[in-house]
Every structure is written in structure tokens, then in C-alpha cells.
Write a structure and sequence with these properties.
heterodimer; A: 265 residues; alpha/beta; 6-stranded mixed β-sheet; 4-stranded antiparallel β-sheet; B: 437 residues; mainly alpha; 4-stranded mixed β-sheet; two-stranded antiparallel ribbon; 19 helices
Chain lengths: 265, 437
């Protein structure tokens, strides 16, 4: 049980939670995202693509770490870039970076509470939200263990707990399944479906199977642009028996990539 | 905020830093160079300030260690996506680190105070000012350390800063010579060594130091909490203004602190119902242990015609030279405290007090040799002067006392009376047996 704020029940005034139009983002000197168009709303979106496709750069731009170098990006109806005040947008964000940094001396609960404070959650909501986030990722029995004592998979889950503690409207998870064992991955898919029920979740991964199993929507990137967006069934439909891969989805993935590379060498 | 404050208190470097500072500080007070604060509270406050030579660099290092935390654990990217402004994010750490060094400094003071509690009564107001400046120095150091640790988040930063801090404190006096007052502005340890019993720190000195340290602290905290380079440059403004203001406020003299005397500490406080025995206010707590010797001395001196009828502490100071009030009716006796804060040599107190009858007026360069003064005193007392083994004058006292003892009583008495008369007039070459060599 928690109090629902007026802001939460207010009707949404924007058509897309995430909307990019001709978006350009630099990673160092390289334009890693170059002319990307993307529109996302509530649901779980899987972000696929080979290494160097610009997935992490896109995630970092959506997380407001990187400023767009060109094009338009709006998050939760607010324009991002230039001198925009990102405070309001950031309150509605959840982010698990690829390199999840944490304070090893903090307990899981302390770290998640600290993140809730950084996300400017109302003081009275922090303790309850923290407990709920920790339970959601299945770390309740480790809540008061120091972060440094956690295994790789537990750390990943602690990372997800901090990302979801503020019930974000946009949740960005960069490679969240790294370090999870098969059973944990099944639990994680369950959690993703649950989270996607009322927020816009973008999951970057190399694991095509995770995307097919847990995402309602697949976004595939290469060379800084979106080359495909559709349902898992659409992805599977792209592939044929002659394509590389051990599953229909993997064959669809390699077929898309092969065709894109043929057109854009 | 309060909840996060609790988390930071437990998980930051605050508690560890406080422990290290308190332990190093307390050990330094007792073991660095003997206990230099046995006279009283002011001496304790000044000794604490002296040992900022160790604590100030350590506080800088502690701040730097804490300041590199975000970089060290690679949380900058994650935290950059959160709405809370950087300045607010830094606030709990700023507060707990300041609290840590403050508590450490006060604990160090309590550790020293435990030694004084039985003997020291006089607690002058400057004690609090000197202590407050010490706290401010540590807060400024730890905040500056936080800022530097955040700007230069390397492993080497903290140890390098500790060494640089120590080096800075040690070079300030030389670098500012001959303008010692400049060193007094920028170094919280300057002129704090070996405080005299009547030492004090003038209010304007503490005020100037407080201004400088406050400005340094403000710059440290602004630098630490600044999110942009423009703000970081602006953060340098307070320290520049503070330096200018502090230089203006500081008295531009020589030995401003070393030469300062607390007149209230020097005032004589006499024993209850016994106005003949008086000690300085700072030593008034020693009256119970001094009184029996003083009474006995007065009894002995009653046998000396025209001898002193009162025993007062000799409150003469030499930087600057200020003699104790002179009166032939008063035997002046210097009083030193030992490492245990009690009278340094209680067994010598009687002889020293009686010898006060033979010292001569203040500034007398031709007073009888100390050995003769003591020989005359112990002849009056009727026991052999205790030889403490390493004092030539005390050896002489034993020698002269034996020669005096060998004389018929009336002849010896005449010599002692003559010694007293010559001492009062400061007659050159005065000695019991003609030769003053």
C-alpha cells in the first residue's frame, strides 16, 4: 500500500514516453547514434544489435548521461538537450548502467534507500518503496547484507532494485542479465513482464532468447540507427532455414543484420 | 536527509577518521614531547593547537580519501541520472565529516582535560576561542580535502595531501619571516608551542584566524559541491576575501601570541583565612599542596629579623619582561608544575620559599648566588640542603651550608642577616663567605 500522488493519477499529456527523431549522440569523437528515430511507450522493449551498434550510447542518452549532439529527443514529454532542466524527467527515470557502480560498504537496503533519496522520492515513501523493490528482485533475505558480499547475480538484482525503486515511467536496463544463472533469468523475465505493465522498459541485451521471451516489442540497431522495430513474431518471420542461428529468433536476427550490411557496407 | 545522514555516518570515512584523529591527538598530547599543558586549561588548548601539525594534514587526507569515493566506485554515471542536485548530494558527507573531526578534536581535549581536572580551576574565555579555532581548522582541512579528492580522485591524492599539508605548516613561518603575524594568520599551530603558565591568545588573533579558516572552509565546501567549472572558479572568491580580511584584523606585531600575558591568570589568589600565602590564579588549585610548606616557611622566616611575613608566587614573565610586584615583606617563590600537574618538587618548596628572602629586588643583576640563598635558607630551617645531583648551585648550597654550620650560631646568624640586607640593596659581590664565584 502506498499513497498515490496527484501527479501519478494525472492524465498523461505526451504521446510517447520516449521519442527520438533524427537523434545524434556522440561517444567520444565517434557519432555512435546517428539519425535514429524511435518511439516507445508502455511495455517491454528489447534492444538488440551487434557490438558497436550504438546500444549503450543510446541508453546513456536516454538516461540523460549524454547530451544529444543533434536531432530531437523527448522523454516523458520533456525536450532533452541544450539547457533543459532535466530534474523532472530524471524523477521518472530508472537506469541500470552496463558498468553498475555501487558502494561496497553499504548494505543493499542502504544503497537502494540512498538511490531513492537521490531520485528525490518523498521521505515517507522511501522505506516502503525500498522494501518493495528489494522483494521484487528476490533479494529480501540479503537486504541487510553489505553490497561487497553479494555474488555477481545478486549485484545485478540489487542494480535492478535501485533502478525500479521510484516506480520509473522509463526504465533503462543495459545488459541486465549478465551474471544471472538460468533460473534467475527466468525470474527476471517474469519481473520484466511485471514492470512493463505500467512503464516503458527498454532492455539492451545480446541474448535474443530473453527478448523473445520477455519483450512485447523488439528494436534492432546497427551503425547508430534502428533497422527494425516489431514484435518477436515479426523478428522470427524475418529469418529462414538458411540463416545462421540455433532458434527461429536468432535466425531472424542474423537475417536482418545480413540484409542491412548488404545495403550499408 | 536525516536517514541518509545516518547511512553516511555509518558508511563514510567519518567514524574511521574521527578515531584516527582522536587517538593520534591524544597520544601526541601525552607522549610527543612530555606533557606541556600541566599548568592549566589554556595550555591544554594551545597544546591541542600545536598538534594540529599532525591532525591538520590527517584531516586533509581523510577528506581527500572520502572525496574520491564516487569516482573510485564508479557511481558517477548512475548518480548523474538522478534529479537531486550535486550540492544536495554532497551535503550529508559534508556534515558527517565535519562532525567527525569536531568530535575527534573535542575527545582529544577531554583526554587532556582528564589529566588536569584535579588541579586546574582557572578556565578563561580565550580557552574556548582557541579551541573553536582548532575545530574550525580541522573542518576547513577536511572540507578542502573533500574538494581536492573529488577533483583529483587518485589513490595518491590523500597521502600526497597529508605530506603537502605538513610541509605547508612547516614552511609557513620561514616563508613569512620577518612578518610573523602573517604566519599567525595562515598557520593554526604558529606560536602555540611551550605555552607559559600565564600564556593567552589575544582575541584579535583568534578572530583573524577564525576569519581565514572560515573562508577556507567555505571555499572547500563550495569546491566540493560545485557541479561546473565556473562555480569552481567562483568558489575561490571566499578564500581570497577571507585572507584579505584576516590580514587586516590580525595585529601586525612581533610575538603577538608568545608575548601575550593573561593578567587575570597572573592575579594573586590568597589562601582562605591566610592572606599571607598567595598563588597566581592559574596555580590556585595547587594551594592545598603548597600551603603546608608555605606556613612552615613563614614560621622559619619569623626567626630572621625584619624577614618576610608573606609568601607569594613569583609571577615574573620574561617575554615580555614583567616582574612580580616587589615588597621586602614578601618572599617570592617560583612555582613549577610537574608532569602529573602537581607541584614539580614539593620537597623543595619549603627551602625555595625561605630562600625567597634572599633574592633581591626585581631586575637585580647582583643578587647573591642561588647556592648562598639556599644555604642561608636551610641554615634557618636547620637541615642540610637536599642536593639534587645535577645542579651546580645546589652542590654549592650544600658546601656553603656546611661552612655556615661550622661557625658559632651568632656568627652564622650575622652572616645570614647581612646576606639578606645586601640582597635587598642588590649590593654587588654579595656572598656568605666573601667570594661570590
Amino acid at each position: 500500500m502506498r499513497t498515490v500522488t496527484a501527479a501519478e493519477t494525472a492524465p498523461r499529456t505526451y504521446p510517447w514516453a520516449v521519442h527520438a527523431d533524427g537523434l545524434q549522440v556522440r561517444a567520444g569523437r565517434h557519432m555512435a547514434v546517428d539519425g535514429l528515430d524511435l518511439a516507445l511507450n508502455v511495455g517491454v522493449h528489447g534492444l538488440l544489435g551487434p557490438n558497436g551498434a550504438g546500444k549503450t550510447t543510446l541508453m546513456r542518452a536516454l538516461a540523460t548521461v549524454l547530451k544529444p549532439a543533434g536531432g530531437q529527443l523527448s522523454l516523458l514529454g520533456e525536450q532533452v538537450g541544450g539547457r533543459a532542466d532535466l530534474r523532472k524527467v530524471r524523477r521518472g527515470l530508472g537506469y541500470l548502467p552496463q558498468q553498475f557502480g555501487f558502494y561496497p560498504r553499504f548494505t543493499v537496503r542502504e544503497f537502494v534507500e540512498y538511490m531513492a533519496w537521490l531520485k528525490e522520492m518523498p521521505k515517507t515513501a522511501v522505506a516502503g518503496a525500498t522494501q518493495r523493490a528489494i522483494e521484487r528482485v528476490g533479494l529480501a533475505d540479503k537486504a541487510d547484507a553489505r553490497m561487497k558480499t553479494l555474488s555477481g547475480g545478486m549485484l545485478r538484482r540489487a542494480g535492478i532494485a535501485q533502478a525500479v525503486v521510484n516506480d520509473p515511467e522509463v526504465l533503462l536496463l543495459d545488459e541486465p542479465t549478465v551474471g544471472l544463472d538460468p533460473e534467475q533469468r527466468l525470474d527476471f523475465r517474469e519481473l520484466l513482464r511485471d514492470l512493463g505493465a505500467d512503464s516503458c522498459v527498454l532492455v539492451s541485451t545480446h541474448l535474443v532468447e530473453d527478448v523473445v521471451a520477455a519483450c512485447g516489442d523488439v528494436v534492432m540497431m546497427n551503425q547508430g540507427r534502428v533497422l527494425f522495430q516489431g514484435t518477436p513474431a515479426d523478428l522470427i518471420a524475418q529469418g529462414g532455414d538458411g540463416d545462421a542461428g540455433d532458434s527461429p529468433a536468432e535466425r531472424g536476427y542474423s537475417a536482418l543484420l545480413r540484409r542491412h550490411r548488404a545495403v550499408n557496407p | 536527509m536525516t536517514h541518509v545522514l545516518g547511512i553516511e555516518l555509518r558508511r563514510s570515512a567519518a567514524i574511521g577518521s574521527a578515531l584516527i584523529l582522536a587517538v593520534v591527538g591524544a597520544l601526541a598530547l601525552y607522549f610527543a614531547e612530555g606533557i606541556a599543558f600541566t599548568d592549566g586549561w589554556m595550555q591544554l588548548a594551545m597544546s591541542q593547537r600545536l598538534f594540529l601539525a599532525l591532525l591538520w594534514p590527517l584531516a586533509l587526507a581523510a577528506g581527500a580519501w572520502q572525496g574520491r569515493r564516487e569516482h573510485r566506485w564508479k557511481v558517477t554515471e548512475l548518480f548523474a541520472t538522478t534529479p537531486r542536485p550535486v550540492a544536495q548530494r554532497m551535503r550529508p558527507v559534508i556534515l558527517v565529516m565535519a562532525a567527525a573531526v569536531t568530535v575527534a578534536y573535542l575527545v582529544m581535549g577531554l583526554a587532556g582535560g582528564a589529566w588536569l581536572i584535579g588541579t586546574a580551576d582557572y578556565l578563561p574565555a580565550p580557552f574556548f576561542a582557541v579551541t573553536a579555532v582548532g575545530v574550525l581548522a580541522l573542518v576547513a582541512a577536511v572540507w578542502l580535502g573533500l574538494a581536492i579528492g573529488r577533483l583529483l580522485p587518485w589513490l595518491i591524492t590523500a597521502p600526497a595531501l597529508a605530506i603537502a599539508g605538513l610541509g605547508l605548516l612547516l614552511t609557513i613561518p620561514g616563508a613569512t619571516r620577518p612578518r610573523g603575524w602573517l604566519a599567525l594568520v595562515f598557520s593554526p599551530i604558529y606560536e602555540m608551542n611551550m605555552p607559559d603558565a600565564f600564556a593567552t591568545v589575544p582575541g584579535r588573533v583568534s578572530a583573524a584566524q577564525a576569519i581565514w579558516l572560515l573562508a577556507l572552509a567555505v571555499t572547500g565546501v563550495l569546491l566540493y559541491a560545485a557541479a561546473t567549472w565556473r562555480l569552481r572558479v567562483a568558489a575561490l572568491l571566499p578564500v581570497l576575501l577571507g585572507a584579505a580580511l584576516a590580514i587586516t584584523v590580525m595585529p601586525h606585531g612581533k610575538r603577538v601570541v608568545t608575548g601575550a600575558i593573561d593578567p587575570v591568570a597572573k592575579e594573586l589568589v590568597c589562601a582562605d583565612q591566610e592572606p599571607a600565602v598567595c598563588l597566581s590564579r592559574v596555580h590556585a588549585g595547587l594551594m592545598p599542596e603548597f600551603l603546608p610548606s608555605a606556613r612552615q616557611a613563614l614560621t622559619v622566616l619569623a626567626a630572621l629579623p625584619g624577614g618576610p611575613t608573606r609568601v607569594h608566587e613569583d609571577t615574573t614573565t620574561y617575554v615580555p619582561t614583567r616582574y612580580a610586584p616587589w615588597d621586602p615583606g614578601v618572599a617570592l617563590v617560583r612555582l613549577d608544575t610537574g608532569q602529573d600537574t602537581h607541584l614539580a618538587d614539593p620537597e623543595l618548596a619549603l627551602g625555595d620559599a625561605v630562600a625567597g628572602a634572599f633574592t633581591g629586588p626585581p631586575g637585580c643583576e647582583d643578587a647573591p648566588p642561588l647556592g648562598d640563598q639556599l644555604a642561608a635558607a636551610y641554615w634557618l630551617i636547620g637541615t642540610e640542603p637536599p642536593a639534587d645531583g645535577n645542579g651546580a648551585e645546589r652542590d654549592r648550597a650544600v658546601d656553603v651550608w656546611h661552612r655556615l654550620k661550622a661557625l658559632p650560631g651568632s656568627e652564622a646568624q650575622a652572616k645570614v642577616v647581612a646576606l639578606r640586607a645586601a640582597a635587598l640593596k642588590c649590593t654587588p659581590g654579595t656572598a656568605l663567605f666573601g667570594d661570590a664565584s
